[in-house]
Design a protein that fits this description.
This is 23S rRNA (uracil(747)-C(5))-methyltransferase RlmC. The chain folds into two domains: about 210 residues, Rossmann fold, CATH 3.40.50.150; about 130 residues, OB fold (Dihydrolipoamide Acetyltransferase, E2P) (Beta Barrel), CATH 2.40.50.1070. The protein is built from ten helices and 16 strands. Strands 3-2-1-4-5-6-7 form a seven-stranded mixed β-sheet. A seven-stranded mixed β-sheet has the order 12-11-10-13-14-16-15, sandwiched between helices. Helix 3 packs antiparallel against helix 4.
Length: about 375
């Protein structure tokens, strides 16, 4: 993929961009096979990739520069700002939004925050697009609520220019640190969630709920999990670290009993709304810590699906799953190193199948889906 930002030395986020995607995939597969070299794998599935560019559904832009000439992008380690509105990872639909937001920042009087001087109000712009209808969610991350009324008064002009903005909020992040968002979210629109749809499954994106940034590959990830579960005798399933419910909603059938657990109440609200739309009354989503929930249960499900953050599921949950011994475990991971460590802490299971998903082209990162079967099953 050609990138003028990379060629000019202005951005090095895509460190593998000079390699063909086929070579990137081969390197990622080699890395995964090395990490699992001491664990027998019955079946290595072919890796799944997606588009080389314009695949992201989300932009997280640091706002710098001046109120009259804002820059949207990032700060280098020395504090130098870089405008990344031309990044080829963003779809073409983002360009007119960025172009409109720059004069809007001046119109609304939102002075970009200066890390060096600890002054200014506007820290980040967070933009998310739905693949379902092109609707967008825009979040202004502000240092305080001092400019909220001013922002609210200026919004009608922005909404007239950009009717695709379905959800608009201000997030208040007062801490002088590189933290993307704070606790307080102020909604400027009646809609508080962005409608999305993968594989005919309705999904909802709220401001603070995690959602995959590569919808093409994410939809294939969910569909693959659904296909794997469909081949197994599963009547009772747990979906731990479930997020907005993508895995559970794909895998569930009207007859299946499914419990989804996620620490984020916003994500659980999304999952519950989707289950209601699908008419799946045996799905129950709860905002709890996944490890605490699991280790407090006596009822053994047929299958436990885990989709943890980069730290993995940890030894406490591995030990409990080994003791509880459900017939099947599906492990979805964004960090194969911690997944490999966790799999070694599940000695009662054999690896039936592994598949790599290239969710992050031009970088060393990837997602993995692994099917574990109880050794005596």
């Amino acid at each position: 993929m050609q990138c003028a930002l990379y060629d000019a030395g202005r951005c090095r986020s895509c460190q593998w961009i000079e390699q063909p995607v086929s070579s990137q995939l081969s390197a990622k597969m080699s890395d995964l096979q090395t990490l699992l070299s001491d664990l027998p794998v019955a079946e290595w599935c072919a890796p799944i990739g997606g588009p080389e560019q314009a695949f992201r559904n989300k932009a997280k832009m640091v706002v710098s520069g001046s109120v009259e000439k804002p820059l949207l992008g990032m700060l280098h380690r020395d504090g130098t700002p870089e405008d990344l509105t031309d990044c080829p990872l963003y779809p073409a639909s983002f360009a007119p939004v960025f172009a409109t937001l720059k004069p809007f920042i001046a119109r609304a009087g939102l002075t970009p925050y200066s890390v060096e001087r600890k002054r200014g109000e506007l820290k980040y712009l967070l933009l998310t697009e739905s693949q379902q209808d092109g609707g967008m969610m825009l979040r202004f991350v502000l240092r305080s609520d001092a400019k909220v009324a001013q922002l609210r008064a200026a919004l009608p002009w922005l909404q007239e220019q950009l009717p695709q903005l379905k959800v608009i909020t201000a997030n208040i992040q007062p801490v002088h640190m590189a933290i993307m968002e704070g606790e307080e979210e102020i909604f400027f629109t009646p809609a508080q969630a962005l409608a999305e749809r993968f594989n005919d499954v309705p999904l909802w994106i709220r401001p603070k709920s995690f959602f995959q940034t590569n919808p093409t590959v994410a939809s294939q990830l969910y569909a693959t999990a659904r296909d794997w579960v469909g081949l197994l005798p599963v009547n009772h399933m747990w979906d731990l670290f479930c997020g907005v419910g993508g895995f559970g909603l794909h895998c569930a059938t009207p007859q299946m009993r499914l419990t989804g657990i996620e620490i984020s109440a916003e994500a659980i609200a999304c999952a519950t709304q989707s289950a209601s739309e699908l008419g799946l009354t045996n799905l129950h989503f709860q905002a709890l810590d996944s490890t605490q929930f699991a280790t407090g249960q006596q009822d053994v499900p047929d299958l436990v699906l885990v989709n943890p953050p980069r730290r993995g599921i940890g030894k406490a949950l591995c030990d409990y799953l080994s003791q509880m011994a459900p017939p099947f475990i599906i492990y979805s991971s964004c960090n194969a190193q911690t997944m490999a460590k966790d799999l070694r802490d599940l000695p009662g299971y054999r690896i039936a199948r592994v598949q790599l998903f290239d969710m992050f082209p031009h970088t060393a990162h990837y997602e993995v889906l692994t099917l574990l079967v109880k050794s005596n099953a």
